[in-house]
Each structure stands twice: as structure tokens, then as C-alpha cells.
Amino acid sequence: MKRYGEQRFPGKLYVVEGIDGSGKSTQLMLLQQWLRAEGYGVVFSEWNSSPLVRNTTRRGKRKQLLTPATFSLIHATDFADRVERNIIPLLKAGAVVLCDRYIFTAFARDGARGMAPLWLRELYSFAVKPTIAFYFRVPLDVAMERILASRGAIKFYEAGMDLGLSDDPEESFRLFQGRILEEYEKMIPEFDLHVIDATLPIEVQQAEMRQAVKAKLGQTKRLLAAP
Amino acid sequence: MRETYGVVLPGMDLSNLPGKLIVIEGTDGVGRTTQINLLKPWLEQQGHAVLVTGMTRSTLAGKGIKRAKEGNTLGWITLSLFYATDFADRLENEIVPALRAGFVVLTDRYTYSLMARALVRGIDPAWVRNLYSFALRPDAVFYLRIGIEALTPRVIFSHGFDYWESGMDLFASEDMYESFCKYQAALMAQFDGLAREYGFQVADASQPVDDIFQQLREEIRRVLKEKSASPISTASPRKIADASEGAARLEESAASPALGEGKAGA
Q1: Residues of chain A with pLDDT under 70
Q2: In a domain, B9, yes or no
Q3: Mind telling me how many Å the CA of A141 is from chain B's nearest CA?
Q4: Nearest CA-CA partner of A103 in A35, A164, A177, A45
Q5: Which of A6, A52, A88 would you mutate first to test chain B, the one with the most B CBs within 10 A?
């Protein structure tokens, strides 16, 4: 079992992190378009998407069966399945893998739920170290504004309602996301996260991202048949 | 005050858990369930409320694990995490509430079986220990130990060789019997290591059912006599690997087929 930072693969792994409303998913989508156009073999891997584990996670959330411990472990299970069966084989094959959220999401959320930081870091030590981990830094108020404008009800676990911070979902969401922001800030030096100011215009952020990605692409193969 | 093997889960209050946590461990087909089925009515006759629990029985993850294993497609890190999810769910929702209510909790396997299965498959021991370090230290762990020669006929006469119990994911080129022997031997070596590390009390499982039952009764009586108010172990956190006492007891019990003196684990 290779540990974090010990694996060497021909492929590249770029991940985006940040709270909801930071605009990270939009940026990753734009990055993907560009990499495709450049002829690279790009694969998207989303948080919470392992087909084998998804049903259990969904049930746990719907029925509100999850505690901080089982919330943490079921997400780790999902992530491990994706690493073992998806991310590692793709990286071995020389693909460019893009992840919307990665282990830092788990450290931030589970840490905010009171799980021990060192336990979490060891738990996820099987993860592949990203080529670059981008952190989209945004003030809480800006993120809140974007989220409330763009969708309806906030989900139970997203708002950290399981923690009993507040009975009001919006207030609970604000408090919980505030804690998560603190966790992210602590991780910037620890994991050498590449910070992007998510209040800047979308085009400016994307240009910075592309420049950083390009610098690390090196000899990554381009697929001729790319769409 | 109870202790875990390391981290304490958020919201888990370890004080005031007057029940007893008794673990029956051992490899497949060794007779764990038979003993539990004898112990439960015996304990109840004496007025103890008993909760029987075992692996992959959680409301949350039990079904998911069974479905995933049918496909034989999960990697071992993933499977270990899935098992840990199931275990955490049962610990928080079954085991701890029962201990708080003063039950005797009899568990058919505990984290040790899960650890042994992962270790046999080459998963990093430090990772495995960390993963399960939120587990409560039991009041006693009884390890039913048996040799391959004695185990094989039991498996043949019960349900035959099964894919996972034969470790076919590890020794796939062999036929099921060859694979079974290799796998169970490797698993037993891991169990023996864990027995020393965590201070299991070892019972020779090749003895007649009644003899084992009698030995278990004696030991459990001893465990139940210990005042629940008295500290089960030292208050300061100990390292997981610190089980020199346990190792001594194992040698003692390995010398004779009878169970060692004194309590385990804790």
C-alpha cells in the first residue's frame, strides 16, 4: 500500500477545493474544455459518485442515519472505491484526471464535525497526491449570496444540521460553512494548496489556473482522437 | 471510565457505561455462533439482559456490503472502510446504548477479525490500527482457536467452501481447497499476532462444544463479578501496541488448552 506522496504515475491529477458557492465547479469545467481542445485525455471524477457505495450514502442521508463518524467513514469508502478502481488506473494510463473536491473536503467537513484531524489524515493516506490542488478562496458572505440566489432549499447535512448549531437551516449553513472555511485556511500551508481569489472575474481566475496547469503538464500525452 | 484504542468519536460519552462488552473472536467455522447461542440463554437465566451483535449487521451499511461482496469487485481499502462504517454505526447505535443501559453485549467478532482480513491482504498495519482506533476496549476477548486439520471437516459438513472464506481473491489460481488452507493459515498467523498484541484469552476450539462452553462460562462469571464502578483500565491513554501483559497471558493459556487466568484486553 503506497502512501500519500509515494505514488508515481505518468498521468496528472488536478483538484479543486472550496466551499459551496466559491465557483470551483465552473472553473473546473472551463479547465476541462480547454484541456480537451488541447488534445489531452481528460477524465472527470466527482465526489460522492462510486456506484457501489452511493446507495448506502443516499439512504443514510435521506433517513438522517449519519453521525459525524459514519458520515466521515461512508465518504471515505466512496472515495477509496474511486481511487482504487478509477483514479489510479487512469493515472497509470497517462490520463489527466480532474476532481471536483478531494480529500481536503473531507478534512474540512469532518474536522468541522469534530473528527480528530490526525485520524482523518491517516484515514486518507492511501490517496494520490494531486499534481496541483486549487483552493478557491471566497468570503462567506459572497458564497452565501451566490448559493441563496441560485437554488432553493439547503440540504440537511450541507447545512450541518446534524450538529445542532441552529434550528434555522440558513443560519446553521452559515455557521457550518464558517467552520469549514477555518479548516481550509489551516490546510493551505499544510498541503501547499494553490490559492485562487474567487472574487476575481471568472476569466482572470481561469487564466491563472490554465497557466499553473500548463506548467505541470510536461510530457503528458495528447490523444489524437480527442473530441 | 471506558477507553478506546485511540480516538474518541464526537459526542461519545465514555463515562457511565456499566454494561459489559464481551467479544468472541475466531476464524470462519470455528464455532463462535454456537457458543453465543449457548451463552445468551445462560446469561439471561441469571438475570442479565443480553445484546448479541455481529459484523455487517448495521442498519446503515449491512446491505450495501453484502451487495458489494456479491460482485467481488471492491478493493480492500474500500472494503475495510465499508466494514468500518458498519462497525461505527453499530458501535454508536447498538453497542454503546446497550452498555449504557447495563446490558451484557456479546459480539460475534469485533474489529480484530476485520483487522486480520485486511492485514492478510497486505494493507498497511498502521493504517488499519488507526482506522479502528475509535473502537471501545472490550472487557474480555475470547479467541476460539483451531488448526486447519480440525477446521476443514467442519467447513465441509456445514456449507462447503465459500469464495471469501477461501481467500479466492488472494489465491485465485488454486482450487478452493488449496486456497482455503493457505488463506486460513495466513489468517490464523494474523490472529495469533493480534492475540498477543491485544491480550486475547485463547480457547482451544477443537474441544467438544460443552467443554468450551464451560470454560467460557467460568471466565465470563469472573468478568461479570468485577464491579462496574471499578476502573476497567488505567485512566491515562495507552499505546495500542502496549499489551505485554496480554502476551504473558497468552503464553500461559497456550501451554494448556484451558483459558488463561485473569481478564483480557481492557
Answers
A1: 49, 52, 151-152, 224-227
A2: no
A3: 28
A4: A45
A5: A52
The type of residue at A55 is N
Looking at beta carbons, which residues of chain B come within 8 Å of A84? 74-75, 77-78
- Into how many domains does chain B fold? 1
- Give the C-alpha separation, B105 to A227, whole Å: 60
Note down the domain range covering B95: 20-249
Convert the pLDDT of each residue in B59-77 to its tens digit: 666 676 666 666 556 788 9
Q: What ranges do the domains of chain A cover?
A: 12-215
What is the number of other CB atoms lying within 10 angstroms of the CB of residue B173? 7
Rounded to whole angstroms, how far apart are CA atoms B191 and B170?
17
Q: Per the domain annotation, does B266 fall within a domain?
A: no
List the Cα angle A215/A221/A222 in 5-degree steps.
Answer: 95
Q: What is the CATH number of the domain that holds B143?
A: 3.40.50.300
Mean pLDDT, rounded, for B74-83: 88
Beta strands in B148-219 (DSSP E): 201-204
* Position B14 in a domain: no
CA A184/CA B193 separation, integer angstroms: 40
A29 min Cα distance to partner chain B (Å):
28
Name the helix (H) or strand (E) containing A135: strand A132-137
Q: How far is A76 from chain B (nearest CA, A)?
A: 7
Q: Let me know if residue B258 belongs to a domain.
A: no
- Contacts with B61 from chain A: Cβ below 8 Å: 56, 70, 74
CB atoms < 10 A from the CB of B57, how many? 16
User: Chain A interface, mutation test: which of B85, B111, B128, most A Cβ atoms within 10 Å?
Assistant: B85
b/e string for A155-191 if b means 16 or more Cβ within 10 A? eebbbbbbbebbeebeebbbbbbebbbebbeebeeeb
Q: Does CATH number 3.40.50.300 belong to domain A12-215?
A: yes
Q: What is the greatest pairwise CA distance in chain B?
A: 54
Phi (first) and psi of residue A195, to 5 degrees: -80, 130
Residues in chain B: 266
Task: Report CB contact under 8 Å: A122, B126.
Answer: yes
Q: Is B82 near chain A, with CB under 8 Å? A: yes
Interface test with B, best of A50, A54, A73, A120 (most B CBs within 10 A): A73
Residue-wise pLDDT for B90-132, tens only, equals: 999 999 999 999 999 999 999 999 999 999 989 999 999 999 9
